[in-house]
Every structure is written in C-alpha cells, then in structure tokens.
Amino acid sequence: MNKTNTFSGRLKAAGKTRRSSLYLVAFLDLHGVDMSLCEHEGDIYFEMADDEEQRALTKAFVENKPVPVLQFVASVKKVRSLVFQARKGVSSRPPAASAIKSDPQSADAQT
Hints:
three-stranded antiparallel β-sheet; 5 helices
C-alpha cells in the first residue's frame, strides 16, 4: 500500500475527508462547512468532517445548484488567498539536499 492510500485510510478512520478543489471548497465554505487548511508532503488541501452534510453539499456542487454569485466569488477569493498563503509557507522552506542541483552553466547564463 502506498503512502497516499495509507494517509487516506487514516482520514477515513478518523471520520474526515480532504478536498483540494478550489471551487468545491469555496462552495462548502459558502454553506458554512467547518474545515481546516492542511499540508501533507507538499500538498495543500482542506480537511473536514466526512458527514452527510458535506456529502450532500458536494453532490449539490456537482449538480450545479445555484448559489448567490457575489457571495460565491467572495468565498473563492477567501479560499484562494488561504491557499496562496499556505503555498508561500511551503515554498519558503529550504529544499531537500537531493533537490538542489548545481549547474554552473545556467548560473553563468543568468549573469
């Protein structure tokens, strides 16, 4: 079993699910679903309870149920801002030593 399946299994066992779709998360946020922003191995996602309310709202999103446009846009902006802030925090971490590649030719080309 790979790490992703193991991680997903732990979430399900804890009664939680994760979502990374910006628009789905904004839709859920608009409807007041409690969630938390998380990071796992460089992936940023939102974690929430895996309950009937969340499943019903996800189904409503997939079925393209109407929502107030201005409130939805505000929710999209809010969620996108949170993701950008989180990505900035992830990318500001120093890279692993194996990820650093030294190429003197590319350094000379830039100067």
